[in-house]
Here is the input.
Amino acid sequence: MEDIKILIADDEPEILKLLQRYIEKEGYSVDTASDGLEAISLFNQNEYHLVILDIMMPQIDGIEVCRRLRNDTNVPIIMLTAKDDEIDKVLGLRIGADDYMTKPFGMNELMARVNAHLRRYLVLSGGSNLTNKNILEFNNLKIDLKSYMVYRGKELLNLTAKEFELLKFFASHPNQVFTKAQIFKYVWGDEYIEDDNTVMVHIRRLRKKIEVNPEKPQFIQTVWGIGYKFVEE
Here is the structure.
């Protein structure tokens, strides 16, 4: 296995040691930090392929660490939270986290998510957090996360701010199925109201802009009876 390096930041020593021991058993290299400042310092000194951040940490919390890292890298970030607080989860995803887990969690589930995010990241970016760090590319669709520009082939698409946030959310979680309620909560940051067509309307408008054939969408596909998913291939 190639040398894949993971950074874990958590202010609980026992959890930090447990995570490090378990992940190293899977063959990965691990660095640890006990607060947000140390995590940022380590990240600036090393190249990592994935970051695991606890939300509640001293100095700088995990949300702010995630925000700062996301300005410079597209390395997968998994957030950990001890609170069953939907606000923390939504905020984490909106500022660029790829996934979250609520403590306590099973180590097998954590490793399944770690492996899934690493596979996608290594395929898309070639494994370097210095390569296309702000770009997501899917076939003829290119999404520049830093400049908020989206291209279909060579054509620059004119997306509204909310359409971009919706596309960014979908593209950051490829092949995952989301209900309308989940999409609304993550993108709009509010509780979904039954019979509200906001999500459907925005998806319809977005499809018209990014799809070659909006009637037979390649990217944003409907999962009947459940919701929608973004298909990367």
Remarks:
- The chain has a mean pLDDT of 85.
- The two ends are 26 Å apart (CA to CA).
- Helices lie at 13-25, 36-45, 62-70, 86-94, 107-125, 161-172, 180-188, 198-210.
- The first helix runs from residue 13 to 25.
